[in-house]
Each structure stands twice: as C-alpha cells, then as structure tokens.
Design a protein that fits this description.
Layout (H helix, E strand, L loop, with lengths): L1 E5 L8 H5 L3 E4 L4 E4 L3 E4 L2 E5 L5 H10 L5 E4 L8
Antiparallel strand pairs: 1-5, 1-6, 2-3, 4-5
Length: 80
C-alpha cells in the first residue's frame, strides 16, 4: 500500500497528523509533511505504508478536508 500526498493542496488543518504518525506539522509553512516520503512530482510526495499502519493511513486520507491524501493498494488501485 502507498500514500500519495499533494502538499500544495494541503491547507494545514493537521487532521492527518492526529490520525497517522507519518504526518508531521510544519508550522513554518503551515502545512503537513509526510515523513520518509520521496517527491515524485513538484510538491507531491509518496511513501510505502508500513505493515500494520494501513488503517491509520486510510483514516488520515479520509480526515483530510481538501483530499490532499490518496491511498493506493499494491495493485495501484485507489482505495481512499
């Protein structure tokens, strides 16, 4: 499972931070950061979800008020 995070879309409500430890507050920019991720496009970051954290990743995506977080299964299908 992978998470894709569009940081440009993020408005800094930090609900994702409350749902999954992989997200961190960046108070300087007023946006979240996705720890351990790699930038795949300008301001778009992706990371593999560690085993056992799949539900947290899904909750983080669902909690985002601007849909800046997407979750994909191992076949590349979007699940959130």
């Amino acid at each position: 499972m992978r998470v894709r995070f569009d940081r440009d879309t993020c408005i800094g409500m930090y609900q994702c931070v409350a749902e999954w430890d992989a997200f961190e507050k960046d108070l300087n920019d007023g946006k979240a950061d996705l720890a351990g991720s790699e930038e795949t496009e300008p301001d778009v970051f992706e990371v593999a979800v560690p085993e056992g954290e799949e539900l947290d990743a899904k909750f983080a995506a669902r909690a985002c008020p601007v849909d800046a977080i997407e979750v994909y299964d191992d076949d590349g299908e979007q699940v959130v």
